[in-house]
Write a structure and sequence with these properties.
elongated, two-stranded antiparallel sheet, alpha+beta, about 110 residues, 1 helix
């Protein structure tokens, strides 16, 4: 079964709530995490053994010891994301620019 999560695809974070787990080799507060409602670009898709995880172009973290040996950069479950059509990315970018211009004109 092919996955729709692939390098270069744009994804929307739909679950940005993170909690530390005792099994994590790192403190969740110490890593950069995706924010709900933000769009990211997939850098890498990882088979974690518990499902698929994503590493994102816009977020880079240091590597931590891994329970299978060695060190790895944390990844984020695909369940936290949905694929975004490029048209939607363009529309969100346009709306963001319009909003910023509107905010600047209010302060001038």
């Amino acid at each position: 079964m092919a996955t729709e999560f692939k390098r270069g695809k744009r994804v929307l974070c739909i679950d940005g709530h993170f909690e530390s787990r005792r099994t994590d080799p790192f403190n969740a507060e110490d890593i950069k995490k995706p924010r709900e409602g933000e769009i990211y670009t997939i850098r890498e898709v990882i088979d974690t053994g518990h499902g698929l995880g994503l590493r994102l172009m816009e977020i880079e973290n240091v590597s931590y010891p891994h329970d299978k040996g060695g060190t790895q950069e944390p990844c984020f479950s695909t369940e936290r994301f949905q694929i975004v059509a490029e048209e939607e990315v363009a529309e969100r970018t346009y709306q963001s620019l319009v909003n910023r211009i509107g905010e600047k004109s209010k302060t001038n």
